Amino acid sequence: MEYYRKKRTLSAKKKLYIALAIIFLVIILIIIYLHCVVNPILIDATEAKVQSLTQQAVESAVYDVIKDENVYDNLIEIVKDSNNDVQMITANAYEINLFSKEVLASAQNNLNNLGNTGVEVGIGTFTGLTFLTDLGPKVKLKLAPIGTVYTTFRSEFTSAGINNTLHKIYLLVKTDVNIILPTDTKIVNTTTEILITESMIVGKIPDTYLNSSQLDEMLNLVPKNWIKNFK
Description:
Helices cover 45% and strands 31% of the residues. By secondary structure, it is an alpha+beta fold. The strands form three sheets. Strands 5, 6, 7, 8 and 9 form a five-stranded antiparallel sheet that branches. The protein has a two-stranded antiparallel ribbon with strand order 1-2. A two-stranded antiparallel ribbon has the order 3-4. Helix 1 runs antiparallel to helix 3. The chain is rod-shaped. The N and C termini lie far apart (67 Å). The C terminus is likely disordered.
């Protein structure tokens, strides 16, 4: 009798071990499926949305700083000779530094708000079946702005007739946003280029400004373009 009791006990333990092994195997298979099948589809479904939201956040930050100010005259000084020809184009380092700091602070705030809002995808995306992508009730994925925001300026001269030159200044803002996925994370890099100001320059401009990156180098001499440690 004792023998049969032990046998039943061993059989019950064996069944329990088998059940636990099956559960463990199912969990492993689910994790593998999420990582190898679902995550890539989630990335495809959300990356474009995140880039669009990030660009909107950056553009809003820039426009909030610009408002109705005459940005060109703040950033650039043009020195002419008696013939009204351009002798020198200089960049105002103080104003550039101030402008960059204000843009970066505003962009940081907007990206932090974006992180709190997250991005929504349809629950069908989690099946791993492409034809169900973004279908069904919406599920919110968390976003985490990380690392730094970096700004650079780009200057462009365009001929607008005899001795008339249209000068445009663009601001390039580079950002990193982390998408928190079920079994992984994905860093989305976004570069947003925004025309911040333009002005018509009357008079001949030296080729050193038209055919080189000299002015770009002057605009980008300001070192404090990094904002760190997003929260």
